[in-house]
Amino acid sequence: MTVSPDLNVDTVEEIQEASLLRDTMRAFARNRMALLGLVFVALLVFLAIFAPIVSPHDPYRMALDEQFLPPSTTYWLGTDNFGRDVLTRIIYGARISLVVGIVPSLISLIIGTFMGVLSGYIGGKVDFVIMRLADMMIAFPSLLLAMVVMYTLGANLFNIFVALALVGWAGVARVVRSQTLALKEKEFIEAAHANGASRVTIMFRHIFPNVVPTLIVLFSLSIPDAIMWESSLSFLGVGVQPPEASWGLLVSRGKEYLFQAPVVAIAPGVAILLTVLAFNFVGDGLRDALDPSMKD
Amino acid sequence: MTEKTDNVLSVRDLRTEFRGDRGHVRVLEDISFDVGRGKIVGLVGESGSGKSMTALSLMGLVPKPRGQVTATRMDLDGTDLTRLSQDGLRQLRGRDISMVFQEPMTSLNPVRKVWEQVGEPLAVHQGMKRRAIRARVLEMFEMVGIPDPKARLDAYPHQLSGGLRQRAMIAMGLICEPKLLIADEPTTALDVTTQAQILRLMLDLRDRVGTSIIMITHDLGIIAEMCDEVNVMYAGQIVEQANVFDLFERPSHPYTRGLLASIPKATEKRLSRRMPSIPGMVPNLAKLPGGCRFRPRCGDAMPICMQKDPGLADLGNGHGARCWLHLPHDAHPQGETA
């Protein structure tokens, strides 16, 4: 039996609590790939926020005499079919793609977790209703569902969130439910009952923390998913509208000129790839850092 | 048994049954016993004899609606447990009656710090602030003999050994100073040295805190060492009830005798001899034999055993045995001699 050196309380104030946040950060920092991913994501966020300042050109200015220029010192990644700077458009695209990647994933995660824990723990009729609702969502062609939402509510960013969350929560709920089902048979849940803990306490203080590692993985996996979803919707004309730029839109427009100017489609594709990788690394690192048994 | 006023727990005619698709299974029947203040009462028996189910029934943890618990009396220091609602029972759990489980490795939540879990009853029942809970948990850790208790507060369960975890579980059980602590085979999962330490700790705490303890075990050695009163359980019934001296001096039920005979003795000269055992198996509770439940395995079975359950025969001094050997053969006791 060992006690990690981090827990040497003699160096801290009498019975001060070791903070979970600090423990987690320390464990996270030990993972190189996770750190690298975090740096990349941070850089991306920085670029997205300060796009007007950091980007070398105007993303909307067209110059038809500068179509499909190859990468050069003026245009680092060349220009597209309207002569717009590809790099600038990728930086601006990051704004939409990041938001669309993170916000709807977060919403479906929150709804899905709540529904999943409730469904798995309470069981019975509650379980039946929630799971049939989830089945409906999963059985329905989700692209169609998202398109219906976009058509009826109009194509804007907020409605993309609504559409993606509507599609996404059901999958999360199923995974969380199955975990909850396994967890609630555990002896420590019975011990919590023996302590007089209420059902709400057990759901949120005993079951939920055990689901968190799964949620982080789900989250880091759903970000790329959401980015791809956004590009599908944009591609179909119900998502982000040109001349706005999102990565999915850039790829789908650029692919028409794949042979003339491959960089136009490949560069935003690489951006998606790197972002997805970065988020996965961060997610992996977080999951390990939050797992108490990995801390020694 | 005589009614004593100084009982923390008094149970009469406790019956627990499960309703399944293929009829009822009565897992407990005719359970009556008392737990005196500051006493340790043992429940001993084989697996499936109903020891743990008795504990769950007392705690109100038998899964409803499939499981049904009834009793003519279930009194915890003046509180009638049979009348309490689900929520009333919940508020009692961890405060007035608490439980230590068999598996210290799995009865702590792996992702929560030990002190948060040990202090949970305080948060649930007394709404204490985190700082105060922490201080109290530290006190309890010192009391149950966890070395370097300050450092252990922020440990996660996997960082503690089995013995330390069981100490933490005992701290959790006692943190609200309950009237009754149910220990469900608290040492079964531990190695022998640790077992002895934990048992000594429990005796010591009983003396210091004054909590009464129900000790569930299949180990007669633990019974002999720890308990004041003993209830021997078989197939969902109490078959013999006595204080610990009477039980070992004058075992009166053939099952108890069989159990005592099957303890290997270190003084035995011929070690190669097969250990004595009770022939047969514990009956399936769904297909119980009529009459005495132990009859099929009993060397002393008589015709009457087949016809009627004997009920607890009173042998004086609170000693009872559910056996026709101690009753006139033509006796037909109508009520239970609880």
TrEMBL record, chain A:
Record-linked InterPro entries: BP-dependent_transpt_permease (IPR050366), MetI-like (IPR000515), MetI-like_sf (IPR035906), OppC_N (IPR025966)
Record has Cell membrane as a keyword: yes
Membrane-topology annotation of the record: Multi-pass membrane protein
UniProt record, GO biological process: peptide transport; protein transport; transmembrane transport
Keyword Transmembrane helix: yes
Superkingdom in the source lineage: Bacteria
Swiss-Prot/TrEMBL keywords: Cell membrane, Membrane, Peptide transport, Protein transport, Transmembrane, Transmembrane helix, Transport
Subcellular location: Cell membrane
Primary location recorded for the protein, binned into one broad class: membrane
SUPFAM superfamilies: MetI-like (SSF161098)
ABC transmembrane type-1 domain: residues covered: 94-283
One of the record's GO cellular component terms: plasma membrane
Segments passing through the bilayer: 34-54, 96-121, 133-151, 157-176, 207-229, 257-282
Family classification: Belongs to the binding-protein-dependent transport system permease family.
Protein name: Glutathione ABC transporter permease GsiD
Automatic annotation (TrEMBL), chain B:
InterPro entries, per database record: AAA+_ATPase, ABC_Ni/Peptide_Import, ABC_transporter-like_ATP-bd, Oligopep_ABC_C, P-loop_NTPase
Transport found in the keyword field: yes
GO terms of molecular function: ATP binding; ATP hydrolysis activity
Any GO BP annotation: peptide transport
PROSITE patterns in UniProt: ABC_TRANSPORTER_2
One cellular component (GO) term of this entry: plasma membrane
Keywords of this entry: ATP-binding, Cell membrane, Membrane, Nucleotide-binding, Transport
Membrane topology category: Peripheral membrane protein
Statement: the UniProt record of this protein carries the keyword Glycoprotein: no
Cellular compartment(s): Cell inner membrane
UniProt xrefs under Pfam families: ABC_tran, oligo_HPY
Span of domain ABC transporter: 9-260
Similarity comment text for this entry: Belongs to the ABC transporter superfamily.
PANTHER family on file: DIPEPTIDE TRANSPORT ATP-BINDING PROTEIN DPPD (PTHR43297:SF2), OLIGOPEPTIDE TRANSPORT ATP-BINDING PROTEIN APPD (PTHR43297)
Protein name: ABC transporter ATP-binding protein
Gene source species: Pseudodonghicola xiamenensis
